[in-house]
Structure formats: C-alpha cells, structure tokens
Amino acid sequence: MNPFELHIPTRIYFGKEKADDFFEQLPSYGKKAMIVIGGGSVERMGYLDEVQDHLKNVGVDFVLFEGIEANPHAQTINKAAKIGKEESVDFMIALGGGSVMDASKAIAGLIHDDLDDIWPYTVGGPKYRQIKGALPVTCIPTTAATASEVTAHAVISNPEVKGKSPVSYPFMKPSASWLNPAYHTSLPKTTTRDGASDILSHVFENYLLGGNDSDLADRYSEGVMETVLDTLPKLELDPKNEHLRGQLLWASTMALNGMQIAGRKGAPFTLHNLEHALSGQNPELAHGRGLAILYPAYFRWLYKNDRAIDRMALLAKRLFGISKEDQKDSAMAFINNFEGWLKDSQLYERLSDQNIPEEVFGDVADYAIKIYGGGKDELAAAGPLTRKNIIEIFKLTEMQEPVEEVV
Ligand code: NZQ
Ligand code: ZN
Fold first, then answer.
1. 4, 5, 242, 313: most buried by Cβ count inside 10 Å?
2. Residue range 56-80: average pLDDT?
3. Is there a domain that residue 146 lies in?
4. Which atom from ligand 1 is nearest to the alpha carbon of 147?
5. Which atom of ligand 1 is nearest to the CA of 202?
C-alpha cells in the first residue's frame, strides 16, 4: 500500500425522507443563503419551491441566482459572486448538477476573498492556488455524474478563450449534501447516460494507471463500475424508478470521494485533461459525453502501446468474467466488451458528431498540454502522451460510427 491522507468532511443525507434533517442543520452555517440553480429545470419540476419552503420552515433567509450554464461560465460565476457580496450571504445552497455545484464553490471562494474574477485562479492561470477560503457550500445534486457534492473541485469554463480548467481546494469540499433520488426522475436519457459515463471515468482513470498496490481500491472501484454497468440499461427501460436512480446517484458520490484511489500510486487524470480541453473547444459538449467518445480510442491506444495491459486484463476478469491465457487477449476482451456496452447505451460516437472537427484536434491537444502538462510539452498516461499521440487518439475516435437507437 502507498501512504495516503483521506478527509471526507461532507455530511451526507441520503433519501427524500432525510429532507428535514438536512434543512434543520442549515442555520448552523448562517442566516442567509444564496440558492444557485441552472437553466430552470429544477424550477419547472417544482424542486426549487420545495427547497424554498424548507428554508422558510427553518428560518433561513435566501437570495436566488438562476442561470448557471452547463459547463459553467466564469463570467456568470463572477456576476453571481457580485450579487452574493451585495446581499451579504453567509453560505451557498447548490441545487442542480455538477455545473451548478462547481459554480457555487467558485462563488463561495470569490465572496470569501472579496475577488471579482475566478478565471485567473484556475489551473494554468496566473493566480492558481491563491484563493484563501470559501463560504460553506451545501449541495443538492440533481445529476448522478460528477460527485461534486463531495469533492474539492470546481471546473470552470471560459468561452471567451475556449478554455475549461478547475480550481481545487480542500475548503471547497461541501459541508453537507442532500442526495434525493426523487429529484433525478426528471433527468433526460442523454444526461443520464452522460452522467453514467462520467462516474465510470472517475474509477477507471486511477484503476488503469495507478498500479495494483491496493486490493481494496480495486474491489471498491469495481463495485462502482459494476453498479453503473448494471443500472444504466435498467434505467433506460424505467427512467422514473427511484430505486434505480438511487443506485446511480450513490455510485456517483462514491466514485470520486478519495476512497477509490486510497493506497494506490498517484496517477494522472489523462482522460479528464483531454475532455476538459475538448469541452473548452465546444462548450456545448457534455463532460460525460466527451469521455465516452474518448474511451474506446484511448483504451485501444494504450493497448497498442503496451500500457496498462495487466489492469485492462484484470477488468476483463472482474467486470466481464473473461480470462484468456494471454494477458493481451484479455485486455482486448475488456475493450471490446466495454465498447459493446457503450454502443448499447448510445454513448458511442465520433468527435466530429459533437462539432469538434479534425482541423481543431491540434489546437485542443496544445491546450490540454499547456494547462495540464505541468510545464512539459506532453501529458502523462503511464508514460508520455505527446501532441502527436493525442491527435492520434482523437483521430481514432473518428472510426466510432454511431449506432442507430432502437426505440
Ligand atoms: O441547467 P438546467 O436547466 O438545470 O439543466 C441541466 C443541464 O442542462 C440538466 N439537469 C440537471 N439536473 C436535472 C436536469 N434536467 C432535468 N432534471 C434534472 N434533475 O442537465 C444538464 C447538465 O447539467 P450539468 O450540471 O452540466 O451536468 P453534470 O452534472 O454532468 O456536470 C458537468 C460539469 O461538472 C464538471 C464537468 O467538467 C462539467 O463542467 N465536473 C466536475 C467535477 C467535480 N466538481 O469534482 C468532476 C467531474 O469530473 C467534472 O469535470
Ligand atoms: Zn469527470
């Protein structure tokens, strides 16, 4: 086992029955909250009314900020922080998906430090790591995807420079999160699929490149993967099923809380580095969708270059019950079986299907390396991943012809 430090400070309330318990502890964070929401889905579904009623019952005053985009824009976050300062809010309530939760963390930092613009503080910016504190953040996640309800990260987009990059501080970890599967029954099929893809990435990344020093991290990660692989097809048939929604939601929260890597070696977050650069290029590209497009190409590239073969072979055995004599054959069986699952889940397509044409592949590779290369002219993926390699992976995605959906 490798040495590690783990702090999971978020108090988690799971289930609609836990509403009162969640709201009754909110006054301990202050008298006035800023509720942050996205483009209106939570309002249309009546979730916002419910939250506001609960807040009135526990005597917490609030101001509402509406309009956080999917892939939240730095400019909108800055506007919200200005209002939060004028309104002297004490803490945040994020009611929405990863974009809303991430925006709330960034707003909490800007208000706390009395700053105007979040963008210079993101990875690659001139003021990276210079935020000193944040207001308490509480979350009510309405997607099963990012685990932002327990993480220290906030991923920010800046369409003005085609950029997407995170801020990450221990003090941005949410103080409390209420996980209510009932709020997930309204999720469209595409968003559900994209979320499932994101959950998988959070356990795949370190599993493949972080070595085999922690048996528990392996079994834990496989548990998350199996839950997602089993649950998504069932949700396709029964999207309003709260039990299934709860399975996916809990898998999502557990996929990026630190448990999934504890005891393994540190490993690069290569797929995320690449995906963030892709979503920077096209701010309409959902994070989980970008990852899904990258998986088959990235796995095949690792295979071709003899990287992570033992780990892909282990996944063939643990996820699909396949054990071949030759480890490379097992690794390929994992890739083929997982690719089949992506096809069945309508998560199989090309970058060009998402308005990212071949002409910009070089620009995207350059951006990923500039932001995540740590000063080198390459990324890491169990060895160097050069600009040429990244373009090669992007080009491989163009072989992934989408499968017609059978309705
Ligand atoms: O804006 P509204 O109207 O709310 O609609 C949203 C949005 O269009 C909709 N939606 C959310 N909950 C819904 C719903 N529609 C119906 N019913 C509901 N219950 O879903 C759309 C997508 O929402 P978004 O928040 O963008 O999706 P997601 O949760 O996947 O978040 C993606 C963002 O999180 C970042 C991603 O990069 C991306 O910017 N990530 C954050 C991480 C973290 N904080 O630790 C880690 C992740 O790896 C990821 O990078
Ligand atoms: Zn992710």
1. 313
2. 98
3. yes
4. 45
5. 48
